[in-house]
Amino acid sequence: MTETTEVRALEVRGLTAGYGAMAVIHDVTLSVGHGEIVGLLGRNGAGKTTTLMAIAGFLGRCEGEVKVDDVRLRGPAYKRSRGQVGIVLEGRSVFPSLTVANNLELAGADRDEALELFPELRPKLALRAGVLSGGEQQMLALARTVCRHPAVMLIDELSFGLAPTVCERLLARLRHVAETTRVGVLLVEQGIHYAASVADRVLIMNEGLIRAEMPGAELAEREDEIERIYLGGLDDAA
Ligand SMILES: Nc1ncnc2c1ncn2[C@@H]1O[C@H](COP(=O)(O)OP(=O)(O)OP(=O)(O)O)[C@@H](O)[C@H]1O
């Protein structure tokens, strides 16, 4: 699963960013390997989405460095998302009034490849995306992104608003995608048990700082520690 080569799909160093003059995340350093899924956990307002936004280039004022496949990214989001960075935002990143087929086409995704990775979408190709279930819409959002072959995908709350069984299927599919395509995934997730089921590694964030890092497999047994980080402040810094 985790690749041991030197070049990481995503490498972030000393990223400080926020809104206007206010910094919300501070000196964030993290990396994601090819084929690796890294979970980013933390309570509401911890700075998880802001971290994704800053990496993606949505925030005007950032300090620090973002590299994808060892190439430093500069410039705004629309340039980054066309290239090596794929973004799936909270909610449904699809066009509800277009068909599934058109959604794939508009994204520039290879339809055969999309259907190979997400066979559940095949019988739905002619349907408008807006009538798909929440889980199917998320699958379509993933397909639209992964089939543009980014080196790294930034995913915000894939499980948002979905039933547990649907989430589990979706996350298993994400695991399959990471292993098959070798895309690196930085996944913001609220549910600790979901992150434990899919992430190779997890980072725990609070008050805009990365406070701890651990293998996904250790999440369940370290739940008390994680809760203390969620609730605590600087004393819990890793
Ligand atoms: N557009 C904005 N303008 C000003 N402040 C913002 C903006 N978006 C987020 N914030 C603030 O930045 C902080 C971090 O928010 P962020 O959305 O990154 O947290 P989060 O960890 O993703 O939370 P959640 O799990 O609730 O989505 C919060 O205090 C939030 O109020």
Automatic annotation (TrEMBL):
SUPFAM superfamilies: P-loop containing nucleoside triphosphate hydrolases. Keywords: Amino-acid transport, ATP-binding, Nucleotide-binding, Transport. It comes from the Bacteria. InterPro entries: AAA+_ATPase (IPR003593), ABC_transporter-like_ATP-bd (IPR003439), ABC_transporter-like_CS (IPR017871), BCAA_Transport_ATP-bd_LivF (IPR052156), P-loop_NTPase (IPR027417). Pfam families: ABC_tran (PF00005). The keyword Cell division does not apply. Residues 10-232 form the ABC transporter domain. GO terms for molecular function: ATP binding. Belongs to the ABC transporter superfamily. This is ABC transporter ATP-binding protein. It comes from Actinomadura rugatobispora.
